[in-house]
Design goal:
Deoxyribonuclease I, Chain A; eight-stranded mixed sheet; 18 strands; alpha+beta; about 300 residues; globular
Length: about 300
Amino acid sequence: MNFSIQTKIFPFYEVKLDTSSEEIRRISYFTSFSRQRITKMDSFSIFSMNIWFEMIEAKQRFFAIVQLFMKQKPTIICLQECTPAFILFLHELFQNPKNSEEKGIGEFLIENYKFGCNLTKPHDVIMDYGVFFIIEKSVNLDQWLLYPLPNTTRFCGMLKFYFESQQVVQQIAIANVQFSTNSPQTNIQLTHLMQKLLSAYSHAFIVADFQDELHEWNANYRDAWMDLYGTRPIGFTMDTDNNGMLYRWLNNKEKMSRSDRILFKSSIVDEKLQKTWQCFHMEIVGTKRLDLHGSLFPSLHFGVYGCFVFEN
């Protein structure tokens, strides 16, 4: 299937912990290998969640989502259906915390993370809704890229960085993707695009809301949840039995699916270092209701949190 691949390269942004101005500082991006841009790591974690573009009880839901960040402390946060309103909420959280809890979360994010756009200009990377990255400051990025999705105004995102383990340097790529709910043809194109973009990498992760459509994924990719647990526990992220908000949104229809997943591939690159990435922990997050009646949750989707270790 032939279609052109266009690329936009973006810098990450870091919020200064300066209560007088809270200025946004641009972090330079790097497009070539540099010893200074290597991250020493033997483990990392990924948090993924479709946070839902609707504005229903938005501030309460947004606050619950950032509380999950603080609880899990992931290395890399991948969001789908992220809206400009959510990004502006982050900025407001830093600028004008209304209580000590908000202030604590804002300071935690400022001290530990950098963001996939200038928080005052979310439309640089998101028009209506799309994918968004938040990255721990300890990760030295090589590139942060956006690729337009076929036949849409949205993008898939990809991070690339070098990591070092036992003095051996390798590269890793992480793609953040939102599949279409109503265009199987777009999803097939997107699958081909992702596999083409990631084919050059020995270590690659696909973090996505797949909408239950796993089209022709290369057999080298492993499903992190299935790798670790098999089918028990099942790991539904769309779960009308336990998410009353989803049940009502679907007009009281049932839906039980693993729409949200982390796929990965990892192969030995250096014969002296017989190591690959392995998943050692997975859990479903965002399952706590936000009201007494079980009608409000952080999102229609539960999120997934996975931990990975580089080992024999």
